[in-house]
Write a structure and sequence with these properties.
It is built from 3 helices and no strands. By secondary structure, it is mainly alpha-helical. It has a domain of 38 residues.
Length: 85
């Protein structure tokens, strides 16, 4: 039995990291698709080999607000409704 000493590929590492962070399948799919597009755009070069000239200067990025789950109010009866029952 031989152990493969090659490190996992970039997209496999991304998938694993997203799974460990408990992101949804759709989020994982979206991240992987955008990373693939980025790699193909740069003629299939690995992102670790890219330097400043290949990366567009995006300028300052403002912090984005995270999505929040809606607050669900439990459906309960008022004391008057309980009396009617």
């Amino acid at each position: 039995m031989s152990i493969d000493a090659t490190p996992p590929k970039l997209l496999d590492r991304v998938r694993h990291t997203i799974r460990m962070r408990h992101y949804s399948r759709r989020t994982k799919s979206t991240y992987v698709q955008w990373i693939r597009r980025f790699i193909v755009f740069h003629q299939k070069r690995h992102p670790s080999t890219l330097r400043a000239p290949e990366i567009i200067d995006v300028g300052p990025i403002e912090p984005a607000a995270r999505g929040k789950m809606p607050h669900r109010v439990p459906v309960v009866l008022s004391p008057a409704e309980v009396d009617r029952l």
